[in-house]
């Protein structure tokens, strides 16, 4: 896999197959014109004769530039670069809607100890970003951390210090004092919502329940707020132009969050059909995050009894995800990477596999991993004129070969 940082100058890419933002085939032999890292135009299908010239299978000196000019009707394309992907599939980069960049999925204590060491931030960024990009993930939404590390890492990517994915940052998650979420954490009140807005967060994260238990099926930590308190926080965030994502493990937390106006539900391990019908009616989003429960079924140190409970939880979750798609709910892919035993980027493909096991088509999975993720995170919605060129080039076409194609990344391209 080669990671390409796009230049500001003209850049042309010939896609053998182009998959659009909706997970459907957009065309074959399509020429993308990129300038200043933004998609300026899309041409095609390019006729076979011109495709042969562009791909070099039939080319004399000067044929490349001349053919590009013929297709684009541009007279001068000097200082241009060209990438031949005529043998490959080009599609939008993948989106992970729920991560925690401040943690590594290996040693939480070591990770938190490094938060107060400024010299550790750059190596941390380089490590996290490399792992994400190498797995085709070009946009993420961070669920918050106590030190606001996600805001620091967003700044690093924005200032181009280290190539990284587009980051939707929440700063610190908001929670009830003395309840679950101490490593994410700020007391949930109007002042802290305003403070986060001033800090430049992209969204607000609120923790509305405790954790799901793998020791007792059906048990989840208690609700954190009254409906009135939660609605007050949500209204304050919305008044400042900020969407709100809610950690909500229980159906009670999901129900309350929806009624309070939350924009996206995270987790929802015991979500009911009634809550999903309400979610569909209100056009709210859901990020199911199968991985935090699935992971306990494969960790050798976990008691087999508890592994069985974890499997029961995530199997039910798969059933609800399938129903959510059938209802037309916008479902995004999120791994909760950084959580115990979930390294950044490495288990994203497994999350997609679990979606496939749930009965979703490849087209639906592509849409969840790209279009839906972009809608939830507020990132570029894919391969459209006027939007950033965050592109994934695969050696195989997932619409033909299935999601295994995501394991065969040829290039990632972005700014």
Structure description:
This protein has 415 residues and is α/β, with parallel strands linked by helices. It has helices at residues 48-55, 63-72, 108-113, 121-134, 149-158, 190-199, 227-239, 251-260, 273-282, 291-294, 304-327, 348-357, 362-377, 398-401, and strands at 2-5, 11-19, 25-35, 38-43, 81-92, 94-99, 137-142, 166-168, 203-207, 243-248, 264-267, 285-287, 330-331, 391-394, 409-414. The strands form three sheets. The protein has a seven-stranded mixed sheet with strand order 1-15-14-5-2-3-4. A five-stranded parallel sheet has the order 9-10-11-12-13, with helices on both faces. Helix 8 packs parallel to helix 9 (273-282). The protein starts with a strand and ends with a strand.
Report mean pLDDT, rounded to a whole number: 92
How many β strands by DSSP? 15
What gyration radius follows from the Cα positions, in whole Å? 22 Å
The percent range for strand residues is 15-25%
Listing every helix as H and every strand as E from the N terminus to the C terminus, the arrangement reads: EEEEHHEEHHEHEHEHEHEHEHHEHHEHE
CATH class of the largest domain: Alpha Beta
Largest sheet: 7 strands, mixed
Tally of separate helices:
14
Structural class: alpha/beta
Lateral arrangement of strands in the main beta sheet: 1-15-14-5-2-3-4
CATH architecture of the largest domain: Alpha-Beta Barrel
Find the CATH topology of the largest domain.
TIM Barrel
